[in-house]
Amino acid sequence: MASPTNPPADKSPDPTIYCLINYEDTYVQPLLLTALSTHLPAHTYKLITTLSDLPTPSSPLLQFLQYESLSWDHLLAHPTTSLANAYIIRKALIRKHYLSTTVANWCVKYPESVLRRHVMPSVEFEVDYVEFLDDALVEAWELRESWGRNEVGGGEREREWWILKPGMSERGQGVRLFSSEEELVRIFEGWEPDSDEEDEEDARSDDDTNDKDYKSLSDGIITSQLRHFIAQPYIHPPLLLYPSTSPQQDLRKFHIRTYILASGALKIHIYRPMLALFAASPYTPPSTTTPPDLSAHLTNTCLQNSTTRAGSVSLFWDLPSTLPVQPPYTPSITANASWKDDIFSQIRSITSETFTAAARGMGTHFQPLPNAFEVFGLDFMVGVEADGSLRAWLLEVNAFPDFGQTGEGLRGVVGGLMGSVVGVAVGGFFGVGGEGGGDMVEVLDLDLGRR
Predict the structure, then answer these.
(1) Label partner for 397 (CA 20 to 30 A): which of 55, 86, 216, 352?
(2) Which residues cross the membrane (predicted)?
(3) Which residue range forms the structural domain that includes residue 230?
(4) pLDDT for 73-102, tens place per residue?
(5) Does one domain contain both 284 and 322?
């Protein structure tokens, strides 16, 4: 009679999943705990407060923490029993200048890629201080050619606008519009610290918190974040709609927030309940005011106060099927009542190709692990093409998205997302519970050869 084989060293005889759950967010934490109790049988898991509560190092462990709090050593040492809610390396997606490179490299290799038609090309540059801006733009041919066309162009209506994005800023900080070199210089001059502030900091040099690299600027940006920038052609005209609380003549710009679950190495699911986030003010073309009114152009609700944020977030699938009449400068829209399905189809293709490009083309900067998963927030803009068709444009990829901006009224959207994440990623890894991912749509299944 053959003797029984010993289990792999990393396998634990204890089937209990020990869950270390501390998202450090009062909006998300209770939703996570509810998702666990709903989608995992009660006898299969136990909550713990520290890794020292594990019976053995190889006991099944789920870490659902902020990125900085995760124990990467434990995750890497126990690939079959330890699961975490983030990948270690994913700069190819979440840093704007890295994402720009990811897309550009992929489109060179695959000229027919869907990303060529759904991600605006970027001009990348690095600058620390405004006096070095001219040197930083020496090879920014696209910008200089655009500025030249604006100087001899046919008026404000044909003027080409660009959007400036700091490569590592978050929550819409530092995003600006410009159409000339002079306007770009003024933006950077506005971020320069006053000499009096520098002298005052030097006088208090014993205080580490006043280190120049960590000094907040007037709009909340940290100086060290202002080194890497991208500039992209501004998407105009965008599709304009009415927010739920807006009068019928108050057309506004919006973007679509799509939550993505990346699990293992590598499956990608889209959470079908998407959000529409509206700008604080009615839309006007950038040339209408000098400088452009950012409240009409930036749709990040983090930039809005409690008054303007009210009603700024809606469910994408609740948006009207019949589109309102657009302003005169917008081509006549040819989309029919199924426009939301068409946009969702585009989002599925863009998402799949973006993660493929990062995984296959930027492996140094995106390294999915078999025993990890992560929720990303992808932002899309809907533009109106010259022929009247609607096109989804990928704006950015966010790690650890700010779920609280969804608001109390749509809390169920985030709760459903957490339930689907637990069902698909957690239940799937540990082999417990049902799938629980009815609202998850799989768009990619790559085998990266990592076990």
Answers:
(1) 216
(2) none
(3) 121-193+221-234
(4) 999 999 999 999 999 999 999 999 999 999
(5) yes
